[in-house]
Amino acid sequence: MDPPAFRLARLPVLDDPAFRRVHAALPEARLVGGCVRDAVAGRPIADLDLATPRVPEDVIATLRAAGIPVVPTGLAHGTVTAVVDGRPVEITTLRRDVATDGRHATVAFTTDWREDAARRDFTINAMSMDAEGNVWDWFGGRDDLAQGVVRFVGDPATRIAEDYLRALRFFRFHARYGRGAPDTAALAAIRAAVPGLAILSAERVWSELKRILAAPEPREAVRLMAETGVLAAVLPEAVARERLDALVAGGAPADPLLRLAALCPDADVERLAERLKLSGAETATLAALADPAPAGDERAWRAALASRGPEALTAATWLAEAEGRPGDWAARRAWIAATPRPVFPLRGADVLAEGVPPGPRVGAILAALQRRWAEAGCRDEAETVRRWLRETVAATGA
Fold first, then answer.
1. Residue 153's pLDDT is what?
2. DSSP 229-247
3. H or E element that contains 42
4. In this predicted model, what pLDDT tens digit does every residue of 170-212 receive, in sequence order?
5. Structure confidence by residue, pLDDT tens digits, 243-283
6. DSSP per residue over 155-189, as a string?
7. Of 147, 205, 246, 383, which residue is 20 to 30 A from 78 by alpha carbon distance?
8. CA gyration radius, the chain
9. Taking residues 207-223, what's their average pLDDT?
10. Distance CA 336, CA 317 (A)
11. What is the per-residue pLDDT for 380?
12. Strands 87-93 and 48-52
């Protein structure tokens, strides 16, 4: 068996109760993938992923015998999920690729840790660590992390041809871990692989785009995506990188939908949402972001605050600032934060109480009064609006 490459000082993840309980049942298992990468990098660890030479049926039987609930979440690829105090822990049998088609792989199980590591995408994701902090690093992942280089395991073109999603994953990891010049061999292989991106599902593309755009500093990754032709292939609506640059430089929140709106100012929201298979909530948010910041006086801003709410209106100020519209946008955001959202003081019951019978006229009266209230600056003066209601009813008859 290959000796470990190095050993880390005692890490919090090794004392994690979920890890300790699973490891007690599967003492040969090692942490793999992102949790090892982040442990080596000194970053917080989110998910626990383990690997083991045991076959899935043995893993399931052993965990259940230890009283640990387990779900066979991906038996074809050797993955089961243990649930410890409500927390999922993925455990995958060591494997090697038998055949790939650019997106999916047929695998065979193995007991060779190095063979399993060799099928992973990047060197920084190909390390494994045991319960004592010993780390196996066959491909130089620790050095690449230290240098801020995202590098494929083995030949980049071969690795991408196995799974074209790795081209997008490169930019996601470059945005999070890259520093300085990117790996030239990786960029050359990605540029050549752009036609293959067409086989990727919209859900997978958006999942990676969302993570890229959510990175604290996505600008360099997006620039590289544009230079390699990847951006035009997966997001042809992205025609305003300068707006994204300004948004990030101005300190706007690292919100992927806000950044998507900045990149794609002229996009048809419904078509874009359908193409990327956005959720209903994401589509609604993107549609709201397409509504520009008010250009009028204080009354217009109060009306917008009432109709849109503070979060959407604040987002509109960030986009207005990024596109270079004149205005003291920081002051406007402070005003939004300090101003309670105006609430129209009438409901249908108030109209009915004035003797108006139920029916469409109730809604029409409310809509007319709400427009009048908005034009007056959305001042929360209930008695004034009630007087308008009485006047309206008196003028038109109950």
1. 97
2. THHHHH-TT---HHHHHHH
3. none
4. 999 999 999 989 999 999 999 999 999 999 999 999 999 999 9
5. 999 999 999 999 999 999 999 999 999 999 999 999 999 99
6. -HHHHHHHBTHHHHHHHHHHHHH--SSPPHHHHHH
7. 205
8. 28
9. 97
10. 10
11. 64
12. parallel
DSSP state of 321: H
18: left (phi over 0), alpha (psi -120 to 50) or beta: alpha
Confidence of residue 102 (pLDDT cuts 50, 70, 90): low
C-alpha torsion angle, residues 306, 308, 312, 316 (rounded to 10): -90
Residue 193 contacts residue 161 (beta carbons within 8 Å) = yes
pTM over 0.85: yes
Token pair recorded at residue 138: 């066959």
Would you state the structure tokens that stand for residue 321, as one six-digit string? Answer: 């600032």
Per-residue CA distances from 126 to 105, 114, 270 (Å): 17, 9, 39
Any idea which residue has 């039987």 for tokens?
Answer: 61
Q: Is the dihedral angle over the CA atoms 53, 56, 62, 66 positive or is it negative?
A: positive
User: What is the torsion angle, in degrees rounded to the nearest 10, for the CA atoms of residue 198, residue 202, residue 207 and residue 208?
Assistant: 20
Token digits of residue 209: 């785009």
- Beta strand extents in the chain (DSSP E only): 6-7, 30-32, 48-52, 70-74, 79-84, 87-93, 95-100, 105-109, 128-129, 134-136
Q: Binning pLDDT at 50, 70 and 90, where does residue 354 land?
A: confident
Q: Is the dihedral of CA 197, 200, 206, 208 positive or negative?
A: negative
| Contact between 275 and 233 (Cβ < 8 Å) | no
